[in-house]
Amino acid sequence: MKTLALGFAAMLAATTAAMAEDAGCEAFKWPVTREQALFAAAPATPSGATLAVGAAAELALVPVEKAGFAVPPEHAPAPGTFGATASLQVPPDGTIQISLSGEAWIDVIQDGHAVKSVGYSGVKTCPGIRKSVRFKLAAGPATVQFSGAKKADLKVAVLTPE
């Protein structure tokens, strides 16, 4: 009987944990299911690469001192953290959504200036996705800067909002 009770308790705990993970992702202000699917197969990508709208990449970060930021990050990165830059071709409608697997600051640079975000959603309880930020930009080239990451890799998805 004791074994049966322990088995039931373990099954209940596993079900509760799975439900909590699902609820964690539901706490975002907008759906992140596309990011989850893209992150599962994100290709390794070096700092300085071009990110494609509608795709994800597992970005290799470098120490922030070596990231080569176009402009200083809005939030000064702590010593010992990592960063990267990437280029991006902004689509004609200009609205993009950048989602990250972990903690990092995102700056989008266009025409030499940082562009303020127009929307933010962050959740610490969604497995594999930490934050999603929206920007309204002009169509054309932009630079994306990632800074303050505590790990040397970061999955990044660039999408148009749903």
Describe the secondary-structure layout.
Elements: H1 2-26, H2 33-39, E1 44-45, E2 50-51, E3 55-60, E4 62-63, E5 82-90, E6 95-100, E7 105-110, E8 113-115, E9 119-122, E10 131-136, E11 140-149, E12 153-159
Parallel strand pairs: 1-3, 2-5
Antiparallel strand pairs: 3-12, 4-5, 5-11, 6-10, 6-12, 7-8, 7-11, 9-10
Describe this structure in words.
The protein is α+β, with helices and mostly antiparallel strands. It is built from 2 helices and 12 strands; from the N terminus they run H-H-E-E-E-E-E-E-E-E-E-E-E-E. The chain has a 6-stranded mixed sheet with strand order 1-3-12-6-10-9, covered by helices on one side. The longest helix has 25 residues, at 2-26. It is globular. Mean pLDDT is 89; it is low at 4-21.
User: End-to-end span in angstroms?
Assistant: 51 Å
Please count the beta strands (DSSP E, at least 2 residues each): 12
What order do the helices and strands follow?
Answer: HHEEEEEEEEEEEE
**Average predicted local confidence, pLDDT:** 89
- Report the portion of residues in β strands: 35-45%
The helical percent reads: 10-25%
**What is the radius of gyration computed over CA atoms, rounded to a whole number of angstroms?**
18 Å
Structural class: alpha+beta
Unreliable stretches: 4-21
- Main sheet strand line-up: 1-3-12-6-10-9
- Total helices: the number is 2
Q: How does the overall form come out from the CA principal axes?
A: globular
Q: Mind summarizing the main beta sheet? A: 6 strands, mixed
Task: List descriptors.
alpha+beta, 6-stranded mixed sheet, 2 helices, about 160 residues, globular
